[in-house]
Design a protein that fits this description.
By secondary structure, the chain is of the alpha+beta class. The chain has helices at residues 4-10, 13-29, 38-50, 117-133, 155-161, 164-168, 221-239, 277-297, 319-332, 351-357, 371-379, 383-386, 402-415, and strands at 54-59, 63-70, 75-81, 100-102, 108-110, 140-147, 173-183, 187-189, 192-195, 197-206, 210-211, 246-255, 261-262, 265-274, 305-312, 315-317, 338-340, 361-369. It folds into two domains: 4-194 and 314-415, Aminopeptidase; 197-311, Alpha-Beta Plaits, CATH 3.30.70.360. An eight-stranded mixed beta sheet has the order 1-2-6-3-7-18-8-17, sandwiched between helices. The chain has a four-stranded antiparallel beta sheet with strand order 12-14-10-15, with helices on one face. It has a two-stranded antiparallel ribbon with strand order 4-5. The two termini are 23 Å apart. The structure holds zinc ion (2 copies).
């Protein structure tokens, strides 16, 4: 059965949907790159203030936290990320982004909410409004966290390092959600590991350049790099068991300027995905070992430089908290809409909040794709080809019922920790 508190808190949602729809379209039209989310942060902070939250801004760069203390009880942290990606939008929507911006490397790039963080921000803003408007129905404290810099990595850690918990208080539970290419209106939960850990590594291989006609005077970094790329592929195929999994992708490889010059160095960028910390350590150690050994085998003049560019932890859902939350979702949503989520090779820095606070956290997925289209694509075996995924220039969640569902899940989620109180 639906909880009375959830019904009370969500009773005003239908009337608020047009305003949330406007907020979503506005955020979609004005995407901002990681750690540049000043306009987005200001819009969201203003809404929190209007709802009566105590608001802290500029946490970890452009992060915003709203605190609503509403009597005795647990503290529930609700988190949404707010940054966009350097992607040229091709959705053809009438509210498509035409924004360009300067990225952290000084390049002029197109910007798009291709991961749906505009939806996340709108959901959380809507849930914050509902919880404030119906505060007579529950007690405890809500921490609303709008996090910058998820895509670039580091946003969650920056907020924690900048005193998030000292300023806003330590939560008892951390909750968050992501829009996914599942049918709109569906909610997908999973106990344990939901999303992979990511490690991004830059490798600089040092050779000795020279004339293209005289390889004997050089150490050719192109040949060395080619050898490294192939050997790295043996980590997953030869060093992991069939029951273990990882992805090792060399996403970028640069060396040389022209055909008759042997370059001085080659640069590789490697992306690693793992679901298990022990597998992760083994894969990272294998990369280090192979790269150094190949450099030595090539007689490189000095050892390679291996630099970590970004790291995301595994998104691991607390088992007990996930089953509590899933039960609450099943009670609220009609049969069949709450499903088990598959493991996702994408990564998130959401897990940083729960780890830093030492409390359980749960992350779940909310469908954002047209239900009929998804079911037809699945039936035809064309899901991967036909349904644009997050980060695609065609990624365009349907607004309804996606908007409503994500507000409902956050409110129902928060209220499964915040005790109901009778209307006195
Ligand atoms: Zn993303
Ligand atoms: Zn995302």
């Amino acid at each position: 059965m639906r909880s009375r508190a959830a019904s009370t808190v969500l009773s005003g949602l239908a009337a608020e949907l047009p305003e949330l729809d406007e907020l979503y379209v506005d955020l979609h039209r004005h995407p901002e790159l990681s750690f540049q989310e000043t306009r987005t942060a200001a819009v969201l902070a203003d809404r929190l203030r209007a709802d009566g939250y105590q608001v802290h801004t500029g946490i970890g760069g452009t992060g915003v936290v709203g605190v609503l203390r509403n009597g005795a009880g647990p503290v529930a942290l609700l988190r949404a990320d707010i940054d966009a990606l350097p992607v040229q939008e091709r959705t053809g929507l009438d509210y498509a982004s035409t924004v360009r911006a300067t990225d952290a490397e000084g390049r002029d790039v197109p910007v798009m909410h291709a991961c749906g963080h505009d939806m996340h921000a709108t959901w959380l803003s809507g849930a914050a409004s509902r919880l404030a408007a119906a505060r007579q129905a529950w007690s405890g404290t809500v921490l609303v966290v709008f996090q910058p810099g998820e895509e670039s990595g580091g946003g969650a850690r920056a907020m924690v390092a900048d005193g998030l918990f000292e300023r806003a208080g330590v939560p008892d539970v951390v909750l968050g959600q992501h829009v996914a290419p599942a049918p709109a209106g569906w909610v997908l939960t999973r106990p344990g590991v939901l999303m992979a850990a990511t490690d991004a590594i830059r490798i600089t291989l040092h050779g000795r350049g020279g004339h293209g006609s005289r390889p004997e005077t050089t150490v050719d970094p192109v040949v060395l790099a080619a050898s490294v790329v192939l050997r790295l592929q043996t980590i997953v195929s030869r060093e992991l068991a069939a029951t273990e999994s990882a992805v090792v992708t060399v996403g970028s490889l640069h060396a040389g300027t022209t055909h008759n010059v042997i370059a001085d160095e080659a640069t590789l960028e490697v992306n690693v995905r793992t679901f298990d910390s022990q597998v992760r350590s083994r894969v990272l150690a294998a990369i280090d070992r192979i790269v150094r050994a190949e450099a030595q085998a090539a007689d490189a003049p000095r050892p390679p430089d291996i630099v970590e560019l970004a790291t995301f932890p595994v998104t691991a859902n607390d088992e007990a908290a996930t089953s509590r939350l899933t039960d609450a979702f099943r009670a609220y949503f009609p049969d069949g809409r709450v499903q088990e989520a598959p493991q996702v090779t994408g990564s998130e820095d959401f897990g940083e909040f729960g780890s830093a606070a030492g409390v359980p956290s749960v992350f779940w997925l909310v469908g954002g794709a047209d239900e009929r289209t998804v079911l037809d694509a699945l039936a035809a075996g064309r899901f991967e080809r036909d349904i644009p995924s997050n980060h695609s220039s065609l990624f365009a969640p349907v607004r309804h019922p996606t908007l409503r569902t994500g507000v409902e899940t956050l409110v129902v989620g928060a209220l499964s920790w915040l005790p109901a109180r009778g209307v006195g």
